[in-house]
Design brief:
The structure is a homodimer. Chain A is mainly beta. The first copy, chain A, has one domain: Calycin beta-barrel core domain (Lipocalin, Beta Barrel). Chain A is about 10% helix and about 55% strand. Chain A has a ten-stranded antiparallel β-barrel. The interface between A and B is medium-sized, with 29 and 29 residues. Chains A, B: This is Chromophore lyase CpcS/CpeS.
């Protein structure tokens, strides 16, 4: 599977159950949300701007998409877990299974970030993103066309400490018109 | 990483946080447990018996171990989540990264089961076990020497339906004498 196929399979509306394990405290957090993943075009001004901000030629980019989420945590029901971001894969020229993923806004920190991704031989998408004071490692794979799993780890940047480990099971929803 | 290294890295006591997502109902279950993984020897009578029951020569087996768990779920605090099983890897002769994993008692169903395992290029252990009416798929990987992640999926055997997806983060505990 290449990144284009991976993005194609991800397009749609997903109902997500996410469990976050806050490891230092042994706490569990449960988050339910709806995630929309929508294909964009390479000539969309928002995609062009994002590429420009990273000095990337849009000709090197493939399969840009927008991801939106709207959820609720059992920790604080008043907290709004809502947002969206634009993601643009930029495959390596020489290694088609690897590349950069540009993002106009991260969800670990609300700032722009570029991560490094690769696809494994068993079709797992792995994304590593370094932030100022933390690093995020994410694995996403399809169990079948309508079920995705996602494991996200937030690590301290200076070492191997894991702060949060979270797991999402995502089920494709039909969108009724 | 081969299966012997994988087992070696797993030996010890682990504090586990597990979240189970019961997908049909959108339910979350939180389980906290202590897991002990202890090396056994190939001449241990329990290992010899297990190999015999599968018609496997113990010379073909490597790194047998016993796994015990003792936990509590937030669904039913009176339920005892306690047990142990013996596991015996039997690598394929021709493909060292694949093999069978014999188990004297499964945890999806309390019966003996032999699963098929493989190790991916990025050191994830994948185990697929077929039961009478269900199939279990498990992925385990080390984030660092003291943190393991484990994703388990229980599927209906006749199709692609996923019944439960669960995620464990496991942190190595020091054992004080």
């Amino acid at each position: 599977m290449n990144i284009t196929e991976f993005v194609e399979r991800s397009i749609g509306r997903w109902r997500s159950q996410r469990s976050a394990h806050h490891l230092a405290f042994g706490h569990f957090e449960a988050i339910q949300s709806v995630i929309d993943i929508v294909a964009m075009t390479l000539d969309d001004p928002a995609v062009v701007d994002l590429c420009k901000s990273y000095n990337i030629d849009t000709k090197a980019a493939v399969s840009p998409f927008r991801m939106s989420w709207d959820g609720q945590s059992d920790w604080d029901e008043n907290e709004v877990l809502k947002g969206s971001c634009i993601l643009v894969p930029v495959p390596d020229r020489d290694r088609p299974n690897r590349g950069k993923l540009l993002r106009d806004q991260g969800y670990a920190e609300t700032m722009a970030a570029a991560g490094d991704y690769y696809l494994t031989e068993d079709d797992t998408f792995v994304l590593v993103t370094a932030y100022d004071r933390a690093a995020a490692e994410e694995k996403i794979w399809f169990v079948n066309p309508n079920v995705r799993c996602r494991v996200s780890l937030i690590k301290t940047s200076a070492g191997t400490g894991i702060v949060t480990a979270s797991f999402s099971s995502e089920i494709r929803q039909e969108i009724k018109n």
